[in-house]
Amino acid sequence: MSKKVAFITGAGQGIGQSIAERLSNDGFAVALVGRHKEKTDKVADKINQNGGQAISIAADVADRDEVFAAVNQTVDELGDLNVVVNNAGVAPTTPIDEVTPDQLQKVTMINTGGVVWGIQAAHAAMKKLGHGGKIINATSQAGEVGNPNLTVYGSTKFAIRGITQTTAKELAVDDITVNAYAPGIVITPMMEDIAHEVGKNAGKDDEWGMQTFAKDITLGRVSKPEDVSAVVSFLAGPDSDYVTGQTITVDGGMVFH
């Protein structure tokens, strides 16, 4: 039986890099996808040097054709496709009165469009390969509760939860599960940018911006990317075979259900 293959978008840094490294450690061959290939090249090189199998692919997830091409390249080079992690996203921090049509369109097409195209491409490839698989989408704590200044970002992440539930019902007939993970405050370049912008908008420093999000974490600490990739590992593995349509919150206890 050939090695299982995972496809991860936004894999050049932060949570996406951690997911790629964790799934490689779990035994997957991994395709690392990102807009900036020099970043995914570095992560792929590191994985390959550590005994894993990784390829790096340049693609903009907002472009449907590029997502399909990246999935097809993955199958051609790695021989299969079993897990797709739609992780890529952007997170502008914008007060509601400053949201522009261009920003709304851009962020929606990357965050929400990228998930839709990733699901479509995964479904097409898995049907062609003749087997099921697992699709895993990145939502956010900001997709479960509203946060000030994150109207654009939060709206896309709320949408991804709905897309996850809807497509889980649609794709179950083809033995494909669809789930999501919702990180909280993770120390990544994206989160540092958000904290900076929130602090700047309030006339405060970066640490103040970070604490506006972190102060209500029950476990008393912000998370590492590895906290999130551990949950994605569960969703990508056999222990989650009877889980579909769900969002697992990985926020240290900010939102309770």
TrEMBL record:
Its EC number is 1.1.1.304. InterPro entries: 23BDH (IPR014007), KR_dom (IPR057326), NAD(P)-bd_dom_sf (IPR036291), Sc_DH/Rdtase_CS (IPR020904), SDR (IPR050259), SDR_fam (IPR002347). It is an enzyme of class 1 (oxidoreductase). Residues 4-179 form the Ketoreductase domain. One of its GO terms (biological process) is acetoin catabolic process. The active site is at Y153. It catalyses: (S)-acetoin + NAD(+) = diacetyl + NADH + H(+). It comes from the Bacteria. Keywords: NAD, Oxidoreductase. One of its GO terms (molecular function) is diacetyl reductase ((S)-acetoin forming) (NAD+) activity. NAD(+) binds at Q13, G14, I15, D60, V61, N87, Y153, K157, P183, G184, I185, V186, I187, T188. It holds the Pfam family adh_short. Catalyzes the irreversible reduction of 2,3-butanediol to (S)-acetoin in the presence of NADH. Belongs to the short-chain dehydrogenases/reductases (SDR) family. This is Diacetyl reductase [(S)-acetoin forming]. It comes from Levilactobacillus bambusae.
